[in-house]
Amino acid sequence: MTELLLDLPKVELHCHLEGSMSAATVKELASRHRPDWSHVWSGDIPDHFSFTDFPDFGRQYLFGLSLLRDSEDLAIVTDDLAATLAAQNVAYVELTSTAYSHLHVGGMAREVYRDGLDEGRRRAAARGVHVSWVIDIPRDLEMPDQTDTIDYLESGLTPDGLVGIGLGGYEVGFPAEPYAEHFARARALGLHSVPHAGETEGADSVRQAVDALGAERLGHGVRVLEDPELTERVADAGILCEVCPTSNALLGVVDTIEDHPLARMIDSGLRVSINTDDPGWFDTDLMTELSIATTLGIDADTHLRMQRDALAASYASSPVRRRIAEELDAYERAHS
Fold this sequence. Notes:
The protein is α/β, with parallel strands linked by helices. It contains 15 helices and nine strands.
């Protein structure tokens, strides 16, 4: 199955740029900026990341974020991720970036942020990986009465390939509905609605994402199963769930990988895709996640169908969409 999965043309829809930073990338950026990391690790930066709990994860993640200081840093991170994606036959990726962290918290100029994402996108394209961007609102940092992200999206200083607005961060205590006006303004710009929902909060989070934010896809969405009627509604609407098994296990959405409801989601009629979420910090990649899906009962035909569903739910340009569809057709013929 491993060789079949490697040959399979792939699409990834749920990956955070800031969460994609591998240990090697963090070391590369640390060599540029020479920060003090003694508050995070007692010795050298580790070769692989691990963490004991969510606060420990947060410390490491924020350290990595602090290394993204200029446009070249953003380009390096994008290109390093693209190298991994290209090696795993990933032809298209929608990367989420949290502009608030760079512009409001980090003090980066809008033009610098845009130029870094544009250069990273060019470098990825040179590797054969087409990148589109989703800019998300971090709901546990940017409160509903703040408009930093939507103001940026309306500024005319956004990167090429921008396709969507997301809503990230910790769901518990930070519901989706208060961000309805932000999403309405973004949709008026032609952006698609792809919020996180049904990850660290239950089915009502999904309901709010669909009803208040007009969600076209759901980041995670696994807890929609807690409400069978809502599950049927999401399935009937064809709203795809961007499932990230390792992330769900490490952040306590499920107790263990073996408990993941991926198979139940598919059996319930939901469209799903497999994704990495924060692959650098979670020490994973898309091949690993697809292999995990196999252990959860996903067969070769279903893997192919999930890639077709991911492509259909993507916001790739028409030429990219046609090319990947042709590659999937050729793969099916070669392996039928």
